[in-house]
Amino acid sequence: MKKSKILVALDYSSEQAAMQLVEKLKPELCRLKVGKELFTRCGPSMVKNIVAADFDVFLDLKFHYIPNTVAKACEAAAELGVWMLNVHSLGGEAMMQAARKTLAYENAPLLIAVTLLTSSGEKELKALGIEQTPAQFVRRLATMAKNAGLDGVVCSAQEAPLLKQQCGDDFLLVTPGIRPENTASDDQNRVMTPQQAITNGSDYLVIGRPVTQAEDPVRILSEINTQIGLVS
Ligand code: C5P
């Protein structure tokens, strides 16, 4: 079955609020992203419930620790039945390799890495003693993730053309900061429309508030799916 390239960010503070949206949605319309706030409040049972409702779930917990602990955390996440999970590339290549080794079996969840968070720019890198520009550093971290055998990275759609060139077409790019035409940019600085992001090389679009705060989330999702198509 072909599925949507849209990952809806369930940025809610309670299971009840998240489920109010989920109950309106269907797995054909979108996949779901569970992040640190919802997971910390609601825990694994919430994840299991939405997996049981047939949604593909991206567990966005950005594991970053010693290799052995990250590998065990990835194993635990996979046991929840999630479709995709992530680690933080700043944990280093050995940590990412350990995660990959744990998730090397057939039908394992997709394993991706966060590169540089958008809250860190040139100034923050300098404060850490890193002299590279954010773009150079993102490229370096993405290459490290690729070398560790990961399936892709989270990045901005602006960086997508460069990263596809560097890491190859099969390396998945998951991009937040997406805003359909005529919607508020909220606190996102550099936004792209779904269509622009796909043209730039994004494989999956993370979309939060334009869907979660829409009067009719199903309509918005259907419109975007029609614009950008589905993926196998
Ligand atoms: O509501 P909005 O579409 O801005 O939500 C975007 C989602 O993507 C949020 O869950 C946010 O944490 C996440 N994200 C982001 N920017 C990044 C990385 C992740 O907005 N650089």
The arrangement of helices and strands along the chain is EEHEHEHEHEHHEHEHEHHE
Bound molecules: cytidine-5'-monophosphate
Helix count, DSSP H or I runs of 4 or more residues: 10
Largest sheet: 8 strands, parallel, barrel
Q: Assign the CATH topology.
A: TIM Barrel
> What is the CATH level 1 assignment?
Alpha Beta
Query: Under the CATH scheme, which architecture would be assigned?
Result: Alpha-Beta Barrel
Descriptors for this entry?
single chain; 232 residues; two-stranded antiparallel ribbon; 10 helices; 10 strands; binds cytidine-5'-monophosphate
SSE blueprint and pairings:
Blueprint: E1 3-4, E2 6-9, H1 15-22, E3 31-34, H2 36-52, E4 57-63, H3 67-79, E5 84-88, H4 93-102, E6 110-114, H5 122-127, H6 134-147, E7 152-154, H7 160-167, E8 172-175, H8 194-200, E9 204-207, H9 209-212, H10 217-228, E10 230-231
Parallel strand pairs: 2-3, 2-9, 3-4, 4-5, 5-6, 6-7, 7-8, 8-9
Antiparallel strand pairs: 1-10
Helix pairs in contact: 3-4, 6-7
Bound molecules: cytidine-5'-monophosphate.
3D structure, described in words:
With 232 residues, the protein is an alpha/beta fold. It has helices spanning 15-22, 36-52, 67-79, 93-102, 122-127, 134-147, 160-167, 194-200, 209-212, 217-228; strands at 3-4, 6-9, 31-34, 57-63, 84-88, 110-114, 152-154, 172-175, 204-207, 230-231. Helix 3 (67-79) packs parallel to helix 4 and helix 6 (134-147) runs parallel beside helix 7. The protein starts with a strand and ends with a strand. The relative contact order is 0.15. The mean pLDDT is 96. Bound molecules: cytidine-5'-monophosphate. The site of cytidine-5'-monophosphate has 14 residues, from strand 9.
